[in-house]
Amino acid sequence: MTSLLTRVKSKMSLFAHRKARGMLDGQYGSVFRGRSLDFDDLRAYIPGDDVRDIDWKASARHGSPLIKRYVAVRRQTVLLIADTGRNMAAEALDGEPKRDIAVMALGVVGYLAHRHGDVVGLVCGDGTTTRTVPAKAGEAHLERLLQEIDSAATLDSGPSRIEAQLEHVARTVKGRFLLFVVADEATAGPDTEPLLRRLRAQHEILWLTIRDADLAGGTAGQDAFSVADSSALPGHLAAAPAIVEAYARAAAERDAGRQAMFRRTGITVGHVTGSSTVMSGLFALLERHRRAG
Amino acid sequence: MELTFWWVIPPAMILAAMVPWRAFRPDPQANARRRPVANADRLTALPEYQAALRRHRRWLAVAALAAGTLLLSAAAAAARPAQLTTIRPEQRNRDIMLCLDTSGSMSSADSAVVKVFAHLATEFDGERIGLTIFDSSAVQVFPLTDDYEYVQQQLKLAGDAFDGNAGSAGFLDGTWNGRGSSLIGDGLASCVNGFPGVDAADAGKQRSRSVILATDNYLSGDPIFTLEQAGALAQDRGIRVHALNPGDFDYGPGPGQPGARLRAAAETSGGTYHPLDSPEAVAGIVRNVQETEAAAMQGAPRAVVSDVPDVPLTVALLSGLVLAGASWRLRA
Question: Which of A203-207, B26-30, B168-172, B305-309: highest mean pLDDT?
Fold first, then answer.
């Protein structure tokens, strides 16, 4: 079995060709504002680092901005929350399985947390069962988490229900964590908003939405089947202009409702369409969170 | 209605039963070709999608129905439905000799007879017809022939002559030589002799022979053959004599009366006797006689098997068209 973390890292270094990989580090570090009085070392300033962290004297001596790094007093706990129901085995908007995109996004965030010295835990599952992996440090642990997600999200899994995982976290987790939730386009149900409000009161929440495949129009010309009940969806039926228009209208309404819910509950959301947009999507998400925080 | 290849039907039935079984059997590999998508209810719950799905299902039902009909009708056509009928082939190897008494009292009846035959000749196919006229001596106007154009031409001339039209008097030349008038026995004997090869004994190729004899049987003179002798001659040679008598004025039922003698002569030969009330009745009588003759000469019943694929093939064509239309609609 190929290492999932290696794949994540190679994706990150590909991203580094275009933007500095360190920028993500910077963004992540800013999100965590984990400071203490124990000075560790200096490193070069990366856009996204908090200006307050610049060591001005050292920068003046060195000629370029330097950032003071401190040994974090308390290790942050990043809790990855992933839906591993049947829906994640389905295709995303770009045509890849949503599971692969979720593994990529969770791997990037987990790796950033690992580099930052944080511990990473996992809560994943479907509508029927929820599994918890306690937070630990280390690449091997991270790899295990990713393997867990990768093997859990198949067509044979139970139906997806991200609320079940969120309820589990609300019920069992004590302390203030960073929750990184990866799910598909969940609907804003009446029970979801109080739950999110309850979690937001305790934790910081980053939410990454993986866009679902476009069922009408676009790539809908080919036949599909619903992962919920294996029923076939004839592609040419959904290609009719009236259906495409109605579907697009309904999708826009759903998106607006979900965005409004996240805005009301103060959760930072980003979205990705495929594994190629994971980096930029995460970058935008972390940046937005830093500004919001 | 019979099926020539009836054994086609059971395999076709088995095939027809297997098609739905194959079509409706859940295919475990079907979803391998499709892409998995989540939250499909967001599409399938749309009223527009449901309407399109209903339309799609309706067309599917139409296509399935058309395919079933096509299969069944094709199987029915392949089984070769055939109509088994028995026909009695009408034989057309008949010889008819018109034997007309041209004495003055007979002209209207003669005219009617030749006109009827002039008309009948247009429908003849294989029959031979001849015309002999007689008064005190007999003249064969034309022998038995199937040259119907010539027959019609001659019959027209005869009709003109019997009607007394100008310029046709020469037609009756030679029928009167002063030995008497209306020598009916001689006339009938001449007509009977007008049939060729009467002594040939090849019964297999025997043609039906009949004489249409129009006379009032008022004899004046001394004939060589009496009517009875001529009738016997006809009987010997298997010739039926059908007599038309426009002047049946017998005084009582005695066998010596002219009408009764004519009737006896005709019926002895196996023919018929028809007293005429008016020349207009000739047409009907002659047709009756013709039909009787035709019926008498019909061949042995024969079984005829004729394919009747029209109905199944038409149904197959129509259902094929419907199927083509439905599949085009389903693809669109």
Answer: A203-207
Q: How far is CA A16 from CA A12, A251, A289, in A?
A: 6, 34, 21
Return the ∠ at Cα A96 (arms to A90 and A99), rounded to 5°: 55
What's the whole-model pTM score?
A: 0.61
Contact B49 A238 (CB under 8 A): yes
| Partner residue opposite A238 with nearest CB, options B36, B41, B43 | B43
Q: Does the CB of A232 have a partner CB in chain B at under 8 Å?
A: yes
pLDDT tens profile B174-217: 777 777 777 888 888 888 888 876 555 554 456 778 888 888 87
> What are B292's two structure tokens?
């009787």
CATH class held by domain A77-292: alpha beta
Distance of CA A3 to the CA centre of its chain: 20
Strand runs labelled E in chain B: 2-3, 35-37, 81-87, 94-101, 128-134, 138-145, 180-181, 208-214, 220-221, 240-245, 273-275, 302-307
Dihedral angle, C-alpha A125, A126, A128, A131, nearest 10 °: 0
- Among B236, B235, B134, B143, CA closest to B185: B134
- Collapse the DSSP code of A103 into the 3-class scheme (helix H, G, I; strand E, B; otherwise coil) and give the result: helix
Which ipTM did the prediction report?
Answer: 0.74
* Minimal Cβ distance to B36: which of A91, A160, A251: A91
Q: For residues B259 and B250, is the Cβ–Cβ distance under 8 A? A: yes
Q: By the 8 A CB rule, do A76 and A67 touch? A: no
Calculate ∠ Cα A253-A272-A261, nearest 5°. 40
Pairing of strands B138-145, B128-134: antiparallel
pLDDT per residue as tens digits for the range A213-254: 888 876 656 788 888 888 888 777 777 888 888 989 999 999
Q: Which of A154, A157, A215 to mutate to test the interface with B (most CBs of B within 10 A)?
A: A215
Q: Where in chain A is the domain with CATH 3.40.50.410?
A: 77-292
Count of CB atoms situated within 10 Å of the CB of B168: 16
